[in-house]
């Protein structure tokens, strides 16, 4: 017994320095990152209090960021651009690019960003940044949906100003040693397709070389949006969100060693490895998304002979438009074919973590074309997406969901309804232009086609025809 006590005492003495090193020397940034990801989403009031408390703690902010290497940050920012725009950035320390979907400016020199109590954000350029000759300012709408005027109307501008006698540089209230990425959660934020397509994928691309040492500045800030995607945003940045409009009554000036205004965009639910920042695929985004939500990868499906449970199908249920009028009959048919069926209602889909876990566990996701199908981003590799294509929505169904499945490693089954399965036949004669030539209606503009095909149509599936589709999905699910 005495020998054992001596051994235990000696072991305790040896462990003291190790415990000290862990507790007092361990990187506080890593500890906070784990804490953010492991905590359950907080209530709105708690999130707001936490952000306010952390944003005011300027000493803590500065000490956490001091170790970031400035030269590495500069090189990483440069990789967000290519060709002529990258050359401009190297020469002028600021460069802007414009595509049909997005505008983005990158600066590798210091900036002062004035966060106001209104939806106004001013970025004051310092040092050697040179805007094009004769230009004293550039305005960016930092939401990648330029093709949609309604989205841009809901997006507040960010002004990049060259400091001079008329735009004097405000003094810094908070100094940071990591760069900032500024983007808007206005636009179509709140629609799940646009949350993923317009915001989370572009943010993943833009922040890829900077994560997690980057500060996010959200304009048109909505607390509910930040709360919903808290785990994803925490995987992008170690630090608390800076918001505009700010909750700070005085407003503050935050100074950064560099910044990105706007987000890079590669296409519908897409990451293109040939575009800047380079070598990122849609699969890379899915891995990032799944890991940020702690979704475990599933083993390949067992064969029919060894599978204990029937494959799970999740049906996306719609309520306001493109509703599946005989939903219960479709569910019963799916069960006859051999599926277990869970229904994802709009209310259920409002809980991001729960719906992500449910869909990640299923083998088949079924739904009528619409934003709910974007939940396919949570499917495990090799799973099946079944899209019901309403009358007149062939192109968007292909562009938004069919084509992206290829890069997501998913299997795809499509069911195009006949006109007899659309409620449009109840509103218009069989020879009406809306029935016989939907493309001619789309050619008149989105505002003309939207109330007809997007908002004004429901479907009632022919169960005999649809059985074949379900049987195909079953075969693919069991491969």
Secondary structure: number of strands: 17
> How many domain units?
2
Low-confidence stretches: 13-60, 302-306
Oligomeric state of the chains present here: single chain
Percentage of residues in helical conformation: 40-55%
Radius of gyration: 26 Å
Sum up the overall morphology in one term.
elongated
Percent strand? 15-25%
Number of helices: 19
**Mean pLDDT across all residues, rounded?**
86
**SS-based class:** alpha/beta
Going across the biggest sheet, name each strand in turn: 1-2-12-8-9-10
Q: Strand count, sense and closure of the main sheet?
A: 6 strands, mixed
State the end-to-end CA separation: 61 Å
Protein name: Glycosyltransferase 61 catalytic domain-containing protein
Membrane topology: Single-pass type II membrane protein
GO cellular component, one term: Golgi membrane
Pathway: Glycan metabolism
Q: Care to describe what's here?
A:
The structure is a single chain. This protein is of the alpha/beta class. It folds into 2 domains: 43-274, no CATH class; 312-477, Rossmann fold (3-Layer(aba) Sandwich), CATH 3.40.50. 40% of the residues lie in helices and 16% in strands. It has helices at residues 2-25, 28-38, 44-56, 58-65, 70-78, 83-92, 149-153, 192-207, 223-228, 230-236, 282-292, 327-337, 346-349, 352-360, 394-408, 433-436, 438-442, 446-454, 463-477; strands at residues 94-98, 103-107, 111-115, 121-125, 137-140, 158-162, 174-175, 180-184, 215-219, 242-244, 252-256, 259-261, 312-316, 340-344, 364-368, 384-389, 411-416. It has a 6-stranded mixed β-sheet. A 6-stranded mixed β-sheet has the order 5-6-4-3-11-7. The protein has a 5-stranded parallel β-sheet with strand order 14-13-15-16-17, sandwiched between helices. The chain is elongated. Residues 13-60 and 302-306 have low confidence and may be disordered.
